[in-house]
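Q: I'm building a small set of examples for a reading group on sequence design. Run inverse folding on the following structure and report the sequence directly after it, with nothing in between.
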């Protein structure tokens, strides 16, 4: 009996203190912070690359399925954005990082979601722009929400408050919103 208890105790100690199980690192997943700013910046860089290539399909592919359904005239607004954004990007400023929102089991269903709100100033070879982006990184209840939900863009010269981070009109309207401010 003593031998069985000792074996169970050792087995429990090994299982409970193990850092990895196969390729899954529980320690990393549970305790390492996710770099939400990097995730938002990566998506934004993909967007800029698609704009510079004038690739409307690539631009639309960055938006969530639900945003594409909710947005009005998405194909037309993508075309308008491709005409609006001019030049090759020289540099961008992410205003120090992204704002994060999310919830875990808010409604009692076990839903877990994360949204990142970021703002960018972009300098191109032809103009300067300001972007505001709402990016849904995860939604355990509806994967069709994952992707860019809302994108705002305005020329820097047209922004009435260039000294503050650009947030569009504050409505986070799904789709692409050009030349809108609060």
């Amino acid at each position: 009996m003593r031998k069985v208890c000792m074996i169970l105790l050792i087995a429990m100690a090994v299982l409970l203190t193990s850092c990895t199980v196969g390729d899954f690192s529980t320690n990393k997943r549970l305790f390492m912070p996710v770099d939400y700013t990097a995730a938002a910046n990566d998506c934004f860089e993909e967007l800029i690359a698609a704009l510079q290539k004038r690739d409307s399909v690539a631009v639309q592919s960055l938006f969530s399925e639900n945003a594409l359904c909710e947005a009005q005239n998405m194909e037309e607004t993508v075309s308008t954005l491709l005409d609006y954004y001019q030049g090759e990007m020289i540099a961008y400023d992410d205003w120090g990082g992204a704002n994060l929102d999310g919830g875990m089991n808010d409604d009692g269903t076990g839903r877990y979601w994360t949204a990142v709100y970021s703002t960018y100033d972009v300098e191109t070879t032809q103009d300067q722009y300001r972007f505001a982006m709402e990016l849904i990184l995860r939604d355990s209840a509806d994967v069709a929400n994952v992707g860019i939900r809302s994108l705002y863009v305005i020329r820097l010269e047209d922004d009435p408050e260039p000294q503050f981070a650009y947030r569009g009109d504050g409505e986070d309207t799904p789709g692409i919103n050009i030349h809108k401010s609060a």
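Residues 90 and 124 are 5 Å apart (CA to CA).
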